[in-house]
Amino acid sequence: MKIHHLNCGSFCPLSHPIVNRAIPELDRLNLVCHCLLIESEQGLILVDTGLGLEDVRNQERFLPNFIFNKLAKPKLDLEETAFMQIMRLGLNPKDVKHIIVSHFDADHIGGINDFPQATVHVLQGEWQAALNPKDAREKVRYKSLRWKNNNKIKTYESVGDDWNGLCKIQNLVGIDKSIYLIALPGHTRGHTGVYIEHKNDLFFTGDSYLLETQLKSDNYPLPLRLYDKMTHVDLKQAYKTLSQLREIHLKNPEIKMFSSHDRELFIKMMEEE
Ligand SMILES: [Zn+2]
Prior knowledge:
Layout: E1 2-7, H1 17-22, E2 34-40, E3 43-47, H2 53-57, H3 66-72, H4 82-88, E4 96-100, H5 106-109, E5 119-123, H6 124-131, H7 136-141, E6 153-156, E7 161-163, E8 166-169, E9 179-183, E10 192-196, E11 202-204, H8 213-216, H9 222-231, H10 235-251, E12 256-258, H11 263-272
Parallel strand pairs: 3-4, 4-5, 5-6, 11-12
Antiparallel strand pairs: 1-2, 2-3, 7-8, 8-9, 9-10, 10-11
């Protein structure tokens, strides 16, 4: 098994110079979409897709979403899409057999349409939210055109073995047992992490938190608190999940935990791999 760390979408939130000078922490908020490409015996597996070809070619798709378009400011570079990066690695995008998604936010599933042959693995709660968004916040998140080319959706209930107080969902169809889901509710209805037993175990925590600093301590800067409020569907549950992750991180420093958007951590992990 070979693992590649890919940035499939750069963001430059609140990039106004006056705002950035007033709140120096924002300087660190140049974000990435940290995805994994796994070369496995079952073919290529993507863990999240980041932004896709259609996102970059048709920027208007983001216009109705104020948070995404105005606050997150996606760079929209074709070369950053998973599809193009797979080509650059000398691999064939048609060999992507599986996509495991942390959740159905646009910046995590934009590439699903680029791999219509792949089976998409997702928690049942997230799929239900995507199909039947219940309020304005969910309606702005989920747009079925983002997965219109792919009808190979495989869903899983959030039931399984206990893993450090969290729910472990193993036996993903067609995928080796060393790769499994750890449900991380709060950010969205069916948000999940992905665990990969590897030479160093990797634990992809999606959008449970934005920057690694939040994993180290619950005393983190106000802009990050505001971001939590704006983006987590269930803030109380999200904070419960984050405190469980903190405990796991403290007890098991050998597990490499990483979130979707931390740029510094992404660069560090890419260099180490
Ligand atoms: Zn995200």
